[in-house]
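Cross-check.
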Amino acid sequence: MAAAIYRSSNPAKGKGRGIDLGLTEEEKRTLHEIARAVIWNKAQGKEVPAFHITSERLKEPRGVFVTIKKHGELRGCIGYVRAIKPLWQAVMEMAEAAAFQDPRFPPVGPSELKDLEIEISVLTPLREIKDVKEIEVGKHGIMIERPPYYSGLLLPQVATEYGWDRVTFLEQTCLKAGLPRNAWREPGTRIYIFSADIF
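Predicted model, tokenized:
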């Protein structure tokens, strides 16, 4: 589980951003409904309803991040980098984590619910690279690791939203990992890229 920097787009009104991972609009809507149900019920001290998932795609393990914004500002963002849980379950768990367990923010309260926007980013598997020229800003997210203690991840949409070039994106990911901004140039630093279906 990891936190990431990053308005809920309505999947019924568009095909989202990023790459197409084969999810239908109905499946995207289901994931949004799961995230919303978890956050809304937990914030009000209510029991979260059981989810009955029939889509095989939603049962496949996927890495996923849930981002919460309030009035356009980040309110929480946590996810599974790697595919360790069925997608629907990962969304359920990460929605709760982003709303109530992101250490950068206090837990979401009932009075905030009407102002929250939810965004879901379903990730492709991580791919380690040796040449940073492989990074395409706007397409790729970055994860940087310096084993055994340091790692940081930024989603693909972050670089676009902030207008970063490749080097700035790498530097900011290093800072997110708690490393010096030029650590991506040093031996022992591992760089991974991934893409995402963002909706």
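Residues 2-10+23-123 form a domain with the Glycoprotein, Type 4 Pilin fold (CATH 3.30.700.20). The first strand starts at residue 2 and ends at 3. Passed to J.P. for a second look.
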